[in-house]
Specification:
Number of strands: 0
Oligomer: single chain
Length: 207
């Protein structure tokens, strides 16, 4: 093989590499255009979102049982989930609507986790630690305070209605109603927090 033939082969190899590089650049550009043309919802890996949200919600639920004031941090779960998700899936376009949906998912999982954790705590206190009487006494004290306040404001007319507090079924219904209200509030706050986080991330991406 002569020197000219070797030079020709090297030149041909360089041309082939350049053409392959152009093809790769075109394919990457086409992929970016295709991703940009798709709706944001189609780019969200919801399985990953659910796994991350479940892990964060479970951790917060356990911690909130040990330290009750940390329950107030439940509305920050969507921001934490979005931060972890976006670090793993940078191709996803986060918008306000997508953030709101992610926030709703986080709210559902967080409320479920806190409900399970609270139920487990009450069962442990009553049957494992045998401290159910202390819990019952604390509830009775709070109910007595409510009765006293109502009687002081409404007088004897409310005495008949307050007798319902002595019925166990009424107490259970009152507890479930309060739990439902807290769950609804958590869903609203979590959805709003997710929408705000999505809005901030969409502005950061636009820049």
């Amino acid at each position: 093989m002569t020197l000219s033939e070797e030079l020709q082969e090297q030149a041909q190899a360089q041309r082939n590499e350049a053409a392959a590089g152009e093809d790769r650049q075109e394919s990457e550009a086409e992929r970016a255009e295709r991703l940009a043309a798709q709706p944001p919802d189609l780019l969200v890996v919801w399985k990953s979102i659910i796994r991350i949200a479940a892990a964060v919600a479970a951790g917060l639920s356990v911690i909130s049982v040990l330290i009750p004031p940390l329950e107030l941090l439940a509305w920050t779960v969507p921001a934490i989930v979005l931060a972890i998700y976006c670090a793993r899936h940078r191709e996803t376009r986060i918008t306000t609507a997508v953030g709101a949906r992610i926030g709703l998912v986080c709210g559902i999982l967080t409320s479920f986790g806190m409900t399970v954790a609270t139920a487990a705590q009450m069962l442990a206190l009553r049957f494992a630690l045998h401290k159910g009487n202390e819990f019952d006494e604390s509830v009775n004290v709070k109910l007595a305070q409510i009765k006293a306040q109502v009687l002081a404001q409404s007088g004897a007319e409310a005495a008949a209605r307050l007798s319902q507090f002595n019925v166990p079924e009424f107490r259970v219904g009152l507890f479930l109603a309060g739990l439902g209200m807290l769950t609804a509030l958590l869903l609203v706050l979590s959805t709003a927090g997710g929408a705000f986080s999505g809005y901030m991330r969409s502005r950061a991406t636009a820049r």
